[in-house]
Amino acid sequence: MDKDWSDKNKEIQKLLSKEVTFGEAIDKLIEFRGELFQQITWIVEGYPEEAFYQMPFPGANGYHSKTLAYSIWHIFRIEDIVAHEMIAEDEQVLFRDDRLSKISSPIITTGNELEGEEIAEFSKKLNVRELYLYAKAVKESSDRILSHLQYKDMKRTFTEETKRKLVESKCVSADENAFWLIDYWCGKDIKGLIQMPFSRHWIMHIEAMQRIKNRLCKIARKGVDPVAICGLSCNHCFLGEWCGGCRTEYNTCSFATCSEGRICPNVKCCNEKNIDGCYECSELEVCNKGFFVPTNDGAGAAKAQSLFIRKYGKKAFLKVQTRLHEKYDFQKVQEILGQDYEEALRFLEENGQSVYSKTEKYSGDV
Ligand code: SF4
Ligand code: SF4
């Protein structure tokens, strides 16, 4: 488990145990849930639709054997059922505002009963944007419930009547892989429920989602040119593990995710000019688009890298990058290259003296 998340969770659980620190625990829990939810937001905003029904670890033993869409559905169905059927005893978020039909889910259960290909088939049917809005609504609703709880509520337990209500709701499948959940939840007090569906359960599934998306990016990048369209090296970029690069659908660079249609201005412009990258453009030196916008700290460095590719080719560029990254991390290299692209180009040339030759011109391949 992520060390930082694990430590935060442990601290919250400790604070929950004492009346004097209970209020602080709830505040920290809501803040922590916000931090975890941000991961889900980034995934939903950063990855293409097809990513949500892929199973890059089929048959694996663990939560990463599922899909991204299933993981979101499962985390928030469980929380919605527990928060509303058991704690608040009111209507679940799924049944308000026509959410179920907007998501297009064929089931109302937690999904525990689904196996293998059934998970991918189920995931394909879901409207991911609506699923995300449902998850957000459940989170906000649970945060409100949490903030109204008092220390004395922590010991509240559940009765046979709660079990009967859960069975009748049909929100937990009668399948043996799912039905145990009812006994499991009803065997806990509210403190126990906070410890699992409201925090630890999130951590485990969000970590699994990170594994799934990283694997999808790795698969997408296989055999793809590692030189980005603006002239960065995807092989050396700090985003490398969780981005497929701008030559794939798995482009999570902020210049893409924050742009209309998730298309980076540099990619769009190169596509319109029908060129391989900015290094082939005659306007490169004066360009202010996308990554080259003067307010971007890395603009000068990127431009110098593109100019270097134009002069010496991609192979030489990647070699120089590898040499620099043996000494410095991505951030430091960008810092050293600085904002003045002419100076940065000279620096790259000096550092590349021994790894390229001027006869090794750009040939379009790597
Ligand atoms: S700024 Fe655009 S071209 Fe450069 S790496 Fe990001 S998506 Fe690719
Ligand atoms: S105008 Fe700018 S963004 Fe467009 S191809 Fe040329 S250098 Fe790249």
Give a verbal description of the structure.
By secondary structure, the chain is mainly α. It has two domains: 3-221, no CATH class; 223-366, no CATH class. It is built from 15 helices and no strands. The protein has helices spanning 3-16, 22-46, 68-87, 99-103, 117-125, 128-148, 160-169, 176-186, 190-221, 254-257, 265-273, 299-312, 314-327, 330-337, 341-352. It is elongated and about 75 Å long. Residues 362-366 have low confidence and may be disordered. The chain binds iron/sulfur cluster (2 copies). Residues 228-230, 232, 246, 251, 253, 255-256, 264, 266-267, 290-291 line the site of one iron/sulfur cluster (SF4).
Explain briefly what this protein structure is.
By secondary structure, the protein is mainly α.
Shape: elongated
The number of distinct structural domains comes to: 2
Ligands and ions found: iron/sulfur cluster
Distance between the termini: 38 Å
Would you list the SSEs in sequence order as H and E?
Answer: HHHHHHHHHHHHHHH
The amount of beta strand, in percent, is under 5%
Structural class computed from helices and strand pairing: mainly alpha
Mean pLDDT: 92
